[in-house]
Amino acid sequence: MTQAIERDAIYRGRRFQTETIELCVRWYITYRLSYRDLAAMMAERGIVEAHTTIMRWVLRYVRYARRASDGRGLYLLVMPNGGRYWRYNYRFNGKHKTLALGVHPDIPLEAARERHQIARSLLADGIDPSDRKRADGKYAFATARRGTKTPYAPVTNGVARVPRKTADRG
Fold first, then answer.
1. Euclidean distance between the first and final Cα of the chain, in Å?
2. What is the mean pLDDT of residues 54-66?
3. 104: which of 7, 81, 87, 163 lies 20 to 30 Å off by Cα?
4. Cα–Cα distance between 3 and 42 in angstroms, integer?
């Protein structure tokens, strides 16, 4: 007779059987399949589930940091202890850099995308978003609002300079 092992406690209250959950997570890790491909494979086996359900299983049961990408360098870094952080990977002057955009769920997806767009516009202007964040302080991206152009200028010796045209409007 088989005996239940300790790990079965983490599966209590789940709609699907333990074997189904473990199979999906194992296939995701081993074969690097997409969530939608896994959902299609499970449907062929007669188990209908949404790809988002498989994503939640992977995020919950995999014990190493995972990235859930949103595109163009923006991703949600999910830590094994449950922490979730918005990050943006980019290149500036030939170097790879990572910009922290906030903690999920304090920063929802819309706000993370807005901050990501602001950082991309800074890169397009030739400004390093990390330097801008360091110069403006902790809440540099929190002050920017949708539809308004924040006048960013290059940082010189740790002091941000406001362009003359913006200062005259003021």
1. 79
2. 81
3. 7
4. 27
